[in-house]
Specification:
There is one protein chain. The protein has 300 residues and is of the alpha/beta class. The protein folds into two domains: 85 residues, Arc Repressor Mutant, subunit A (Orthogonal Bundle); 211 residues, D-Maltodextrin-Binding Protein, domain 2 (3-Layer(aba) Sandwich), CATH 3.40.190.290. α1 packs across α4.
């Protein structure tokens, strides 16, 4: 029936075989044949024909109305499918590790949604380890995570790095200093990312303290960078956090560079294998362009 539905709807609008045939780029006999076949297929008389005009029967009126709605829905569905094939529509699930500014994620997403407003973007806050699992199972499409990770099945694209800095209470005795050295903190309890949550970061900080000549007293936090800031603001220790967290506006905290803490938090944009979905490929293109503008040396 769909083969002749469009022809019937045009004829129902024109109520004139010659004009309808012209719109459809058909001959009048060909259009008449299509309408006759449609009537035979559905078992209803749709038209009352006369030399002067064409009239729709009650069955024809109902069919024209409902077919018009159905054809619009079908055309919309086809358009959406074509948009999805090009990456202009659909959905994109993005994982990230609590730091929306890491890897310029917020900027990239703003640029992407401006270019592809038909794609519904959702964010999921997950640890790096959980993002690796989510990519493998397909519950997210893209991950902003912190390498290194042991996941050969992922494609990793460097998206930047940032220095780790010390966060301490504003009334701390060391707060007046413009910068710190690790030796200044040897008697402090250091609040760090737990080993189970970030083994590379944990061991890098431990090694840096060892090079500075002391074994640190550690308070490990496995859930949240912001929880580490809360602990520092409460005077429970000095927290080592990524530099992007220094703009939080907490009046109880000050942030200081630690000259000999040569530890950076790296961020990568990861996908499972070589992405085949157009929406993912388009996102990676936008990310590449944004990162190139922000950091000319960045490569993806």
């Amino acid at each position: 029936m769909l083969k002749y539905a469009h022809s019937f709807c045009v004829l129902a609008q024109e109520l004139h075989f010659s004009r309808a045939a012209s719109r459809l780029h058909l001959t009048q006999p060909a259009l008449s044949h299509q309408i006759k076949r449609l009537e035979e297929e559905i078992g209803c008389t749709l038209l009352i024909r006369s030399p002067q005009k064409v009239m729709l029967t009650e069955a024809g009126l109902i069919l024209a109305k409902e077919l018009g709605v159905a054809l619009n829905q079908m055309n919309n569905a086809v358009q959406q499918a074509q948009d999805a094939e090009r990456g202009d529509a659909g959905a994109l699930a993005i994982g990230y590790c609590e730091l929306p500014e890491a890897g310029r994620m917020s900027l990239i997403i703003r640029c992407y949604t401006a270019m592809y407003p038909g794609v519904e973007v959702t964010l999921r806050k997950l640890s790096t380890n959980d993002q690796v699992v989510a990519l493998a199972t397909g519950s997210i499409d893209i991950a902003f995570l912190h390498p290194p990770v042991n996941a050969a099945q992922l494609m990793m694209r460097p998206a930047g790095d940032e220095w780790m800095v010390a966060a301490l209470h504003a009334n701390h005795a060391l707060a007046a200093r413009p910068t710190l050295r690790l030796a200044d903190l040897k008697t402090e309890r250091l609040i760090v990312c737990a080993e189970e949550a970030g083994a590379f970061m944990y061991n890098s900080i431990l090694a840096a303290c060892g090079s500075a000549g002391f074994q640190p007293r550690l308070r490990e936090e496995k859930d949240s960078w912001h929880t580490m800031l809360d602990q520092a603001a409460s005077g429970l220790g000095v927290a080592f956090v990524p530099q992007s967290l220094t703009g939080g506006g907490n009046s109880h905290l000050v942030f200081r560079a630690v000259d000999d803490l040569n530890v950076k938090l790296e961020t990568a944009i990861a996908t499972a294998a070589d992405p085949s979905r157009p929406a993912v490929s388009r996102f990676l293109e936008v990310a590449r362009e944004c990162l190139a503008k922000c950091t000319p040396t960045a490569s993806m």
